[in-house]
Amino acid sequence: MGRQLLLDKVNVAGINTYDVYRKEGGYRSVEKALKKMTPEEVLEEVKTSGLRGRGGAGFPTGMKWSFIAKPEGVPRFLLCNADESEPGTFKDRYLMEKIPHLLVEGMVTSSYALGANQGYIYIRGEYMYVLRILEKAIAEAYQNGWLGKNILGSGYDFDLAVTCGAGAYICGEETALIESLEGERGNPRIKPPFPAVKGLWQNPTVVNNVETIAAVVPIINDGGAEYAKIGIGRSTGTKLISASGNINKPGVFEIEMNITVEEFIYSDQYCGGIKNGKKLKACVPGGSSVPILPHYLVCKTAAGQDRLMSYESLADGGFATGSMLGSGGFVVYDEDQCIVRNTWNFTRFYHHESCGQCSPCREGTGWMEKVLHRLEYGHGKMEDIDLLWDIQRKIEGNTICPLGDAAAWPVAAAIRHFREEFEWHVNEPVRCLEKNYGLVAEKVFEPVTA
Amino acid sequence: MTFDLRTNNNNRPEARETGSGTPNGNQSNTDIKKAFIDGKAYDIHDGETILQFIKRNLGNDLVPTLCDAPNLEPFGSCRVCSVDVALHENGAVRSQASCHTPVTADTWIYPNSKRIQKLRKNIVELVLTDHPLDCLTCEVNNNCELQSVAAKVGVRDVRYPEGKTHLERKKDLSHPYMTTDMSKCINCFRCVRACDEVQGQFVLSMAGRGFDSHIVKGSEVNFFESDCVSCGACAQACPTSAISDVFESKSIANTEKTRTICTYCGVGCNLDVATINGEIKSIQAPYDAEVNEGHTCLKGRFAFGFYNHPDRLRTPLIRKNGELVPASWDEAYDFIANKLNSIKKDFGPDYIAGISSARCTNEENYIMQKFIRAVIGTNNIDSCARVCHSPTALGLQRTFGTGAATNSIIDLKYTNLIMIIGANPTDGHPVTGAKLKQFAMKNTAIVIDPRRTEMAKYAKYHLQLRPGTNVALLNMMLHYIVKEGLEDKSFIELRTEGYEAFKEHILGLDVAEMERITGVDRNLVRDAAIAYATAPNAMSFHGLGVTEHSQGTYTVMQIADLAMITGNIGRRGVGVNPLRGQNNVQGAADMGCQPHQGAGYLDVTLPENHEKYEKFYGVKLPNYVGYKIPQMYNAALNDKLKAMWLMGEDLAQTDPNTNHVIAALQKLDLLVVQEIFLTETCKYAHVVLPAASFLEKSGTFTNGERRIQRVQKVVEPLEGTKPDGQIIADIMNRMGYDQADYDPDNLLQEIAQIVPFFAGVKWDELGENGKQWPVAADGTDTEILHLETFKRGRGKFMSADWRESEEIVKNGAEFPYIITTNRELEHYNCGTMTRRTKNAEILTEDVLLINPADAEKHGIQESDMVCVISARGKVDIKARITTDVKPGILSSTFHFPEMRMNDITSSVTDSEAMCPEYKVVACNIRKSKGKYKEVVV
Questions:
Q1: Residue A109 falls within a domain, yes or no?
Q2: Mean predicted lDDT score pLDDT of chain B
Q3: At B24, is the pLDDT very low, low, confident or very high (cuts 50, 70, 90)?
C-alpha cells in the first residue's frame, strides 16, 4: 500500500466526530492557512502540488482557481460538487461518510484562497444520509469556530451549507449544478461566460469535486512540493479509485498515481484479482463515460508499455487504444460479461439522464438505447452497428455540456474494440439470450420494449 | 444579445459610461480583428457570435437554425447551426454551435463543410423521428421552420425505426385565443424563452427530463387556467405549430399582409395584418418594427374581431320622435348642416363645440379642428387628450418648452434606472410594460403608485402613497436630493433657470408633514431619491396616475424638476417619458385639437399666429380661447352651448360624474356622434354617423415617443361606413367650405406647411418605422429632445406646494375611503371594441380591489357585492380582496358600461389643464343590499 493522504485515518474509531478528527490533527490546514499564509500563498501551494480535478476532467485545480474573477464588491462562491452519480463511482460518498470533517476543512482552506465567504456542498439526493452526516459535521465546525464570522480571529468569514439535488445526473455538470442550486431546472448553461466569471447568481464561482477539495488539506499541511513528489509526471498525489465488477475485493482504494494497472487489479492490496479465477475481458477505468478497454489494452499500452494508474498512461493511445482516468470508477469485466448488454445498460442510463435541452443528446441517446436494445434482444441488423456509430458521432462534441460526449464515448469504444461481439449478436441472436438470460428459443423473439 | 435595429445614427449622444450594461458602440478602428469564412477574411465586431458574424457578412440564409430567434437570447440547444471552426487554415476542425459561440480573431470558419452538412442532416433526422410528418394538413404547412430546415439540409428518409414518440399528445383548446398541439413540439425552448425574455410572464416551462421533457403551462394546467396574458409571443416564436392561436396566424393561407399600427395604446406597435379575400384572418408582430420588435399584446394581436361585429353601425341614424332611425348619408348631412347653420345664425359659432378623438389619425384630427375653426368659426375644439395627458403637455411646455416625451423607448437599453410614477404599464401599455418589467428584473426601478402594481412587485423601491399626494412625495424626493448635495450643479448652471428660488422653497419644506400626508416612510423616499440622483442615467415614465389629479400639471413639472436637478435630460437613457394613453393622443394635440392652441401648438390669441392661421385657412378665425371639455358641459347646462360634434368619444361612459355629463348632453339642440358602435353617448345623440375603424382607413398615428407611423387600410370600410376624415370633409363641403376628399398624403402635405415640427413629413418617406418629430424639412427626424438647449432656451424650475384635493376637503369627512380608477390588460378604456372580442371571455367584469382589513370591517367576503357611494352616486360592484391596495384605498376599472363606475367620480379637475381627477374619489362602502342581497346570503 502506498501513502494514504485522505484515507489514512479512515479506520480510526469516531473519526467522523469533531473531537476525534481534531485530536488526529484535523483542521491544521485551516490554522496554517489563516494564521500564517495569505490567500495567494495557499493558491501557490495548490499550484505547486500539481493537483488536478478529481471529478473526471482532470483540469489543474490551481489554474482553475486563478481564473476566478475578482471585481470589487461582488461576492465569490466555492461550490463542492458532491453530486457523485457516474455509474461505477462511489469514492466521494465513502470519503464524506467516513471523514466528513476532511471535506469541511478543505472547504474552509480552499475558500480562503479564493476569497469566497460562502460555500455550498451540493450533494446528490440519493445521499440523504450522507447529507445528515455532513450537516452534523458542519454544525460541529460552527460550534468550534472553524466556520462563521472571524475564523480563528483572522478576520476571515466563511459560511458553509449543504444542499441536495433531486436525483438528476446532469446536475453534476457544473453549470447545471449552479442552475439547480439557484432553484432552476438543472439545465447546463452555455459557455462563455464560465462560472469563474459568472456562476452562482451571476457571481464568480469555483466548482470543485469532493476529493479535490479534500486533497487541499494534505497539500497545505505538508506543502505542495511534498504532494507533487507522489505520483508520476503531471499525475501528482494520490487518487481515490472506486473499484467494482468481477474482482475479489471491490471497494474504495487510495493509490499513488504511479502503480501499474496490473498491480491494481491483481495485487491483494487492491482488487485482489478476477473473481472465481476467471479471465479479464475488459475494463472501464474511469467511470461509465470513458472508453472501455479490451483485455489486451488494460495492462499494457498499444506500444507495449506497462499501463499505469495515471491520467497520462490511461489516456495513452488516445481513444483508439486508450481511455481516461476520469472519476476513477474502475469497473472490471470477466470473460462471461456481454459487452453489448453493458453498453446498452450504460446508454439506458444516459438516455434517462439527458436533460433534454440539446436535440442530438435528447433524441440521440434514446435512439442509441433503442438500437442497442434491439441488438441485445436479437432483433438487430448488421447496419444497426453502423447506425449506432453514426448516431454517437453526431452527439459527441455537439451538445452544450459533456453529457453528450459521455453518452457517445462508451458506445464508440465498444464498437471499436468489440465489433465482432456486436456482429455475433446479429448473426446468432439466440446465443446471447440463452447464455445471459437462460431464455429458450421460442421466447426469444417476443417483442420487448425498452 | 443587443438587438439594435437602428441604422441611421443621427444626432444621438450616447448615455453616460457606466462600465457595464451598455451595448458596445462602434469599435475603434485601431485594431480591427478578422476571421475567415470559407477562406475569405471579414472584420469582426466586438462581442458578436459566429452566427451574427456570418449573417452580417453573408446573409441570413447560409446557416440554418431551429432554436435561434431574432428577439431571443442565444440558447444553443438545437445544434443545427453548428459550423466547423479551425484555429488556422486547413487546421483541425471542431464543430461549434455558431449561435452562442463568440467569434474569435483569426479563426477559420467553414459554415457548410461536408462534415457539417452531414451533422445537420443527422440532427434534423433525429428531430423528425418524433414529429408527426403530417405537413400537408398542418396549419403551418410551407411556413414551418422545421420543414424549411429539413428541406435545406436534405433529409430524405428517417433511418430510425418506429419507437416511443410523443405523437399521442392531446391538443389544448381551452383558451379563447391560444392553442397548443404538443405532438409537434421539437423542444427548442423558444416559447419558454419568449415567455421569459419577451413578456416576462414565466408561464411556460420545460418539465420532465431528456426524452420526456415537455412544455408545461404553469403547474401543468391548461392555457386558460394558467397565468398566461395571451400576448402570443410564444405562438409567434414557435417554429412549428406546436403553439399557435385560434386565428392560425402562422398559416400561409393568409396570403396578403398589410402593415399597420395598433390602435389600442400609445406604444404604437406595428402589426402585420393577414387578410384573405378581403377579410382579416390574423395579426402578427413584425420583428423589424423598432417600436415592438416582434412583440404585441392580446389587444393588438387578437382583439380585432370587433371590426366586422354585427353590432357595427352600418348606416347613419337620425333621431325622430325620440327614436334613432336609419337615414341616408345625404339626409343626415342635410339635417346636420341645416341645424348647425341655424344655431350659428341664431346664437353664433361659439354655441357649437367639437371633440376630436385621439383614436383617429393625425389627418382626421387636423381636419376636425379645421372644420370647427375654419367652417364653424370657433375655438371650441378639444380632444380626449384633455382627460388624460393634457397636464403632461402643459407641464412640459412650461418647464422644457415642448409637451412631449423627451426620449425614446429604445433608450431603455442604455439607462441604469427607471422611475415609474402613476402608471401601470404592464396593463396599460403592455409592450413597453414588458420591456420595463424586463428592465426592473435586472436593474433598479422605483415605482410611485398607490397600488402594488405588477411593476411594483418587481421594483426595488415601491413608494405606496395615498392617492392625491404626488406633489408631496415628489417634493420629498427633491428635498432629499438637494439636502444630500446630489444635484447636477453644472447642468443646473448651464441649462436651467429659476433654481435659486426653487432650492429655497424645497429646503424649506416640512418633511415630517409630507411623510404624514403621503403615508410613505421618509427613509424609503430618501433612498429612492438618492438612487435616482446617483444613477448615471435615469429615465422617468409617468401615466394617468400623475395627470388625472387636481395637481396634475404641477406633478408633471416636478417630474421635470427631478430630471433637471439631476441632469437627466438631453442624452440617451434619460428624460421624462409620459406613457401616452391612446394610440394618437400625442397627435391629437399636435394637430391642434385644443381650444388654446392651433395645429403645431401655436397660441391662437397671439396676433402673429392668428394671422398665420387665417391666411392659411383663407377665412376669418376667432382669436380667443374656446371651451375645454369640462367647460363645455357647464356651458351646455347654462344654455351657452347648443350643439356638440363628437368624433369617436363616449362621454357618457368615460367622462367623470356621468349624471352631470348626461344632463349636459340632454340640454343640447344638436348632438352629432361619429361612432363605430352604438355607445352610451349615442343614446343622447340626434345624429349618429357610422365611421370606419382603424383597419379600414389610412393615415398616421403619433405614438408616445413622437413617432409618426403609417396606418394603412387593411380592408375596405364596412358597407355603409366612411372614414371619420371623409365624414368631416363631406360636411365641410356641405357647409360651403371647399375641402378635398380625405387623403392622408394630401393632408400631410397641408399639415407639413403649418405644423413646424412636421416640416419634413411626407407619406412616402415615412417608411416601415415612421419618423420621430421634429422632422426637419430635409426629412431628418429626432430621437431625443433638448440635446444642447431646451426648446424654450433654458429649462425652468417650477416649485409647487401640495394641496389637498377639493374632493377630499369637501367630502372626505363624510366619505372616508378613497377610490382610484385604473385599467386592466384585457380591455381598452370603455371596452367598446374589446368587449366585442373574445377578450371579454378572459376578463368578464369590473371588480373592486379592497384591502382585507377594510373588507373585514364591513363583513365583506371575496366576490361579495359592495355598494360604493360617493357624493354623486353609488354603484354595486364585486369585491376582490387583496393587499395590493392599502387600507382605506379602493380601486376599480370602468371597462363595462353596466357598472357605470363614472356615476361616482367627481367633476374636480386639474387646476391648470382641466384634466378630470379620476384618481381621487371620496367614497364610502357597505355590503350591498338590494338586488344582490341574495348573492351575499
A1: yes
A2: 91
A3: very low
| Shared-domain flag, residues A220 and A247 | no
Distance of CA B411 to the CA centre of its chain: 16
Q: Find the closest chain B residue to A393 by CA distance.
A: B119
Q: In this predicted complex, what is the ipTM?
A: 0.86
Q: Which amino acid is at B236?
A: Q
Q: Are residues A117 and A204 in the same domain?
A: yes
pLDDT at B12: 52
Tell if the CB–CB gap between B77 and A357 is shorter than 8 Å: yes
Shared-domain flag, residues A205 and A140: yes
pTM of the model: 0.89
Give the residue on A whose Cα is nearest the Cα of B188.
A357
Instruction: Pick the residue of B50, B93, B99, B211 with the most A CBs within 10 A to test the interface with A by mutation.
Output: B211
CB of A175 within 8 Å of any CB in chain B?
A: no
* A219 is a domain residue: yes
Tell me the residue range of the domain where A316 lies.
232-334
Residue that terminates a domain, selected from A316, A334, A352 = A334
Best B18, B77, B215 residue to mutate vs chain A (most A CBs within 10 Å): B77
The number of beta carbons lying within 10 Å of the beta carbon of residue B43 is: 13
CA distance A309 to A315: 10
**Of A178, A195, A179, A219, whose CA–CA distance to A54 is shortest?**
A219
Domains: count for chain A: 3
Count Cβ–Cβ pairs < 8 Å, chain A vs chain B. Answer: 101
HEC letters along B585-627 = HHHHHHCCCCCCECCCCCECCCHHHHHHHHHHHCCCCCCCCCC
Burial class of residue B719 (count of CB atoms within 10 Å of its CB; 0-12, 13-18, 19+): exposed
Q: Looking at residue A299, what DSSP letter applies?
A: S
Considering the domain architecture, whether residues A198 and A329 belong to the same structural domain is answered as: no
**Tens digit of each residue's pLDDT (9 = 90 or more) over B118-153:** 999 999 998 998 898 899 999 999 999 999 999 999
pLDDT single digits (tens) A397-431: 999 999 999 999 999 999 999 999 999 999 988 77
Q: Does A362 touch chain B (CB under 8 A)?
A: yes
- Residue A13 belongs to some domain of the structure: no
Are B250 and B265 contacting, i.e. CB atoms less than 8 angstroms apart? no
CB contact under 8 Å between A358 and B76, yes or no, is yes
Q: Tell whether A209 is covered by a domain.
A: yes
CA–CA–CA angle B908, B914, B916 (5° rounding): 45
Q: How many Cβ atoms are within 10 Å of A60's Cβ, its own excluded?
A: 17
Chain A partners of B130 at a C-beta cutoff of 8 Å?
A: 363
Among A10-24, A372-386, B630-644, B700-714, the range scoring the smallest mean pLDDT is A372-386
Shared domain for A237 and A364, answered yes or no, is: no
**pLDDT by residue (tens digit) across A97-151?**
999 999 999 999 999 999 999 999 999 999 999 999 999 999 999 999 999 999 9
Q: Is the same domain home to A187 and A90?
A: yes
Coil vs helix vs strand at A399: coil
Task: Kindly tell me if the per-residue pLDDT of A447 is higher than 60.
Answer: no
3-state secondary structure of A121: strand
> Facing residues of B927 across strands?
B866
pLDDT in tens, B533-582: 999 999 999 999 999 999 999 999 999 999 999 999 999 999 999 999 88
Say what the pLDDT of residue B133 is: 87
Residue A187 has pLDDT above 50, yes or no: yes
- The angle subtended at Cα A431 by Cα A428 and Cα A437, nearest 5°, is 140
Cβ pair B885, B450 in contact under 8 A: yes
Cβ-based contacts of A386 with chain B (< 8 Å): none
Nearest to A185 among B127, B206, B210 (CB): B206
Q: Identify the CA nearest to B922 among candidates B906, B910, B907, B909.
A: B906
In the predicted structure, residue B10 carries a pLDDT above the cut 70: no
Which pLDDT does position A441 carry in this prediction?
53
